Amino acid sequence: MRTSARAAVEVMVAVTLLSACRPGPAPTGAPAQSQASQPSQAAHPPTAATGANAAAAAIGAAGDGRTDDRVALQALIDRAGAGNGDVSLPAGTFLISNASNNQYGLKIPGGVRLHGAGQDKTVLLQAPGFYGGARTLYATGPGITISDLTLDGNKQAQTPSEQRHGLMAVDTDGLRVERVTARNHTGDGFYLYTGANNSTLVNVLSTGNDRNGITMGGMIDGTVLMSSKFIANKAQQVDSEPGRRAEVSNTWVIDNDIDGGGVSNEYVLTCSGTETDTRGHGWTVIGNRINGGIFVVWAENVVIAGNTGVNPTTKSSVVVYRSSVNVTIMGNHFTQSGARVAGVAILGTKGGGPQRVMVAENTIETTNEQGFGVQAQGARSVVIKDNVLRGSGRPARGYAGVALRATNPASDFESAVVTGNRISNFGAHGVQIMGNGAAKLLSVDITNNTFDDNSAAPSMTEGISLDDGTGAAQQISVVGNKYLGGVTTEVTNYPQAVPVLVEGVRGSGGVYSVAGSPEGAMAETVGAKVIRRDAGPGPKYYVKLSGKGTKTGWAPREAPP
C-alpha cells in the first residue's frame, strides 16, 4: 500500500512541474472564461474578419467563412513541411472541405509549426457536408506545434458522426497544442491515437462537441493536459479508450477545468486500461476543478490529489473499478449530490477487485441522505484514513460514512483499515460491514476515528455496525474511537462467532469482546483479557494465564481483570 508520505511526495513533484511549465498569459484577445461559466452550445456561424481579407489574400486564401480555403492552406503547410518551418495564418474564418481521400481537411506533417493570429481570431471551419470519418486537422510526424486558433466543426451543417473530430494526432512524438479551441464537432474536439507520445496540450478549450472533449486512444505514453478547459461536451470530457492489448500511460492532468456543464451525465475523466495484464499506468491527476465523476478501471499507479469539485451527476466522484492496483486518492475536496452513490467508490466484480487503494486526507460531503462517504465493495485491500466525511444529516436506512462489503466468494476482501477519520451526519451508521452470505472480509481495523452527529434530529445514532447477518468479517478491531453528539450507540450488530479487539494490540495481550467462553475457542498470548458480550450463563470476564498462542489457559474472573 502506498503511504501518505509517498503520496505527498508525488503531489510535491507535480506542483513543481506545474510551476516550472505553466505558460504565460494568453495574448490579448484570447477568450476569457471563468471557472463557473458554461460555454454556449450554439454553433459559431461563419463570419468574415474585418480587415483580414488582405492578409488572407496574401497567403492565397479568402478567410471569409464562405470560400473553400483548403487547397491554399494545404499548399502553405506542405511548403513548410519540406523545411520544418512555420505557417502563420492571419485572422479570419477559413472554410475547410475534406480532402479527396475523405480522411481529413488539412494534413500537418512532422516539424511544422502552425500558428494562428489568436485563439478567437483565426478559425478553421469545417465546410457543410464534411465527410463523417474525416478530421479538420490530421497531424502525423514528430515535432508538430499548433497554436492560437480555433477548430470549429460547424455541427449544425453536418450529418451525425462520432468520428468527425477537430484534431486527430497519430505518431506525433512531441506534439504541442497551445491556446487552441475545439468546438462544435459531431465527434471529439481532440483525439490522440497510437504513437502520439509526449503530447502537451496547454490552455486549450474543448467545448460543445457531441462526443468527448479529448480522447486518448490506442497505445500512447506521456500526455500532459494542463491549464485547460474541457467543458460541456456530450460524453466524456477527458477520455481514455486504449483498446485491446493497448495502454494509455504516464498521463498528467494538471490545473484543468473538467465539467460536464449540465449536458453530460457521463464520467468527466476516465483513467483506463483494457484487461488485467494491460493496465494503464502512471496517471497523475492533480489540482483540477472537476465537476463530475472520475472513473479508474484496469489501471495502476494512479494518483488523484488536490482536486476540488461539486458533482451533480449520478456517478460517484471517484470510482476505482475492477482489478486496479496502487491507487492513491489524497487531499481532494468533493461534494456529491447524487443518490445511491459515494464520494469514493472502490468496486470489484467476479473477475477481481481493486487492491492497495488508499483514500487519505480528503474532505467528502454528500448532500443526499442516500449517499456514502467511501464505499468499498468487492475490493481486495483498502486504507481509508484521516478523511473528513460529512453526510446530509437526514436519515436513510443502509447508508453510512464508510461502507465495507464482501461480495466475491472466489476472491476474499483481504484487508480494510479505517483509521483517523472524522465521520458525521450520515443516514444510519458511521461505519457498516456487510456481506452476501459466502464472501469474506478477512481483516478489518476500525481505529481512532471520531463519530459525530450534530444535526438537529440526529440520523447517525449508531457509530459502527459490524454485521448485517452474513458474518462477513472474520477478524475485527474496534479500538480508540470517539463517539460524540447524537451518536448514542457506539458499536452494534456484533457477529456471533468473532472476537472483537476493543483495546490494546492483537497478539500482545489485548482486550476482546467475545460471545461465550474463550476457552477452547480463541488463541491469544498470556495476559489477554476477554469481556463477554452475551447474556449466557457463566463468568463474564476471562484472563489468559497460560499457553501462549493456544486456545486454552483462559481463567474466569467475576470482576473485570
Structural class: mainly beta
Q: Give the biggest beta sheet.
A: 27 strands, mixed
Distance between termini?
Answer: 37 Å
Mean pLDDT reading = 91
Count the strands? Answer: 51
Helix content: under 10%
Quick synopsis:
Helices cover 7% and strands 40% of the residues.
Overview of this structure, please?
7% of the residues lie in helices and 40% in strands. The chain is built from three helices and 51 strands. The strands form five sheets. The protein has a 27-stranded mixed beta sheet that branches. It has a nine-stranded parallel beta sheet with strand order 22-25-28-31-34-37-40-43-46, with no helix packed on it. Strand 49 and strand 50 form a beta hairpin. The longest helix is centred in the first third of the chain and has 18 residues, at 4-21. The radius of gyration is 29 Å and the shape is elongated.
Topology:
Blueprint: H1 4-21, H2 53-58, E1 64-68, H3 70-82, E2 86-88, E3 92-96, E4 104-109, E5 113-115, E6 122-126, E7 135-140, E8 145-152, E9 167-170, E10 176-183, E11 190-192, E12 200-202, E13 205-207, E14 214-217, E15 220-221, E16 224-226, E17 229-231, E18 238-241, E19 248-249, E20 251-254, E21 257-259, E22 269-272, E23 280-286, E24 289-291, E25 294-297, E26 299-305, E27 308-311, E28 318-321, E29 325-330, E30 333-336, E31 341-347, E32 355-360, E33 363-366, E34 371-377, E35 381-385, E36 388-390, E37 400-405, E38 415-419, E39 422-424, E40 429-434, E41 444-447, E42 450-453, E43 462-465, E44 476-479, E45 482-485, E46 489-492, E47 500-503, E48 511-514, E49 529-532, E50 541-544, E51 554-557
Parallel strand pairs: 1-3, 2-5, 3-6, 4-7, 5-8, 6-8, 7-9, 8-10, 9-11, 10-12, 10-13, 11-14, 12-16, 13-17, 14-18, 15-19, 16-20, 17-21, 20-23, 21-24, 22-25, 23-26, 25-28, 26-29, 27-30, 28-31, 29-32, 30-33, 31-34, 32-35, 33-36, 34-37, 35-38, 36-39, 37-40, 38-41, 39-42, 40-43, 41-44, 42-45, ...
Antiparallel strand pairs: 47-48, 49-50, 50-51
